[in-house]
User: Fold Exocyst subunit Exo70 family protein from Rhynchospora pubera.
Amino acid sequence: MAAADEKVRLTAQHIVRTLATSKNAADDMIRILSGFDDRFSDLFPPSAASAGAATGDDRPATSKEESRDPTKEMSGSPSEGCALATVQEVNDGGDASEEISAKEERHGISEEESVKLEMAEKLVLMWDSSANSISSLFESSEEAAQYLSAVDDLISISSDQSLPTSHRVRAESSLQLAMSRLEDEFRNLLSQPTTDNSTPRHSASLRRMALSDPTPVASDTPESPQVGELEHSLSLPLSSEVVAPYIVVPDIIFDLKQIALRMIAARYEPELCQAYSDTRREALTDCLVSLGVDKMSIEEVQKIDWPTLDSKMKKWIQALKIVLNGVLIEEKRVCETIFESSESLKDECFAEAAKGCVLQLLNFGDAIAIGKRTAEKLFRIVGMYEALAEVLPELESLFSGHARVFVKEEAEGILSRLGNAVKGTILEFGNLIRGEMSKKPMQYGEIHPLTRYVMNYIRLLADYSSALNSLLADGDTYGSDQGTGASTAEGANLTPLGNCMLTLITYLETNLDEKKKLYEDEALQHIYIMNNLLYIVQKVKDSEMKTLLGDNWVRKRRGLIRQHSTGYLRASWTRVLSFLRDDGLVGSGHSNRNALKEKFKNFNNAFDEIYRVQTNWRVPDPQLREELKISVSEKVVQAYRSFYGRSKGQFEGRSAYKYIKYAPEDLENHVADLFEGFPGVPGNPRGREAC
Assistant:
């Protein structure tokens, strides 16, 4: 309303000047207007007051207008000078008025332009006053339109070389104040947070979480601002509440664009670009912090404990995808809409606003890439490598010119260092396998923790096969000729990742082969190797590793397990079976019975010892356990059954039970107790109790 009142007053002043053909006519007009509204009586003070005002009030100029202050050419402010001139016209009558009008026309300025300048000056000064400094022009669309119209007039007058210098200087002075005001309004609008009352379009965009190219709209009004939709979905969840406060609200883009148009027309591009980049740079940095990516130095990153660092690496991967596939695409769209009239500002403002956010992301990746290489970091580093490689084309397309070259070189350098970190960490993991030299054997031949750890670790490598095949393609990380024991034939047709897996598994097999020597019992060595080899084979067979290593590899390892099964039978039961041979038995005499007694006695003792020891041994895999029991039955129980049948007739009555401890069925029950991991008592098999 204040702006509207001022416009009415200036219009009335113009009427007075136009109609002032005589002093009486002017007095009559003033009296009529004052009767309508007593504020007009203050507009035209008596001549005595005019004489006093002509001396000027020496109001100090602001810092922005000091160098081009039009008050150095005339006393009082521009609006006061205009008012004094009007009063003088009234007092001097029609002749004076005609003289002033003629003078203005001689200097190339019409009365309409003069009034337009005065109105613009007054409006700018009014909004520059302390009373209006805390209010926003854009709280009222009507007041904003009036102010922007006044700015348009000032731009037009200040650039019109046909107008008197004094008028152009006055216009430039007011324009400086207006630009300062618009810059503040621009910053405040950009800083405006998203509220619960944001447009449905904005909310829907955030829910879709990633952004697409803008679709131009027919009209450029506050009701239909040029903003994009968030269309591409991300693989990671994003809460709209997290990102929403850092995206420019669509409702204000029209106002921002209107301010930008005036500042560009007034040649205030540097101030405009700085206002945009400063405000948005801070918002985008805050967005990163909300996503869990803090600004940290390389030294700070390298001092973080692993659980905390693991969490930060995970958040970095998510933030990278969200920011580059979403937030920055929308930022670029908004920037291009606001600075639609200036191609150079579009690129410059976006680059200055977004570069800091991008570098903060890249610097964290660099800190990880050059940090200490430990096995537990591998999969997070691979994840970071994959994420950066995925968004690299999008990152490059966001920028142009020198900024594009700079960002591309930085990102590609960090991607390369992350790749080297992946390869170095795999090498470190291989060294860890070979260097694991624990001297304490696993009790009862169970699966070694190293086997579980290594195979679970290698299995996870298959989840990153695409990236790892690319990184390992140079053959520098692992090959079949590095003393691993892996045959050239085995790795001949494998992918780079397949060769890497083969090498790591060969390291493990070699280590296990060394550890078996910690067992004094040769039979237990075979059980130990079988348990661990079968675990390796099962991990390969039940995962993507089977595709990478091939069926032939699996068949070969199963063949090794069978060899160790045969080795176990030979080491455990050869001596026992020697007592079941007919060596030394001749006929059916007394000496023959004594030999049989000795053979049964030796067999019983040997079998009892094996039973006592091997019931403690554990074969976790039920199928392998049953296969071993069947092998023992086929080799031992069957031989015993045959020997038992041939020898039992050599004893009479109950005396047979004194020497023959086990019937073949008893032996079957005892064999069923082997490899269960529970101690057994000879002569009292759990299998028989179960029956």
Observations:
- The chain has a mean pLDDT of 78.
- The two ends are 103 Å apart (CA to CA).
- The CA atoms of residues 347 and 539 lie 53 Å apart.
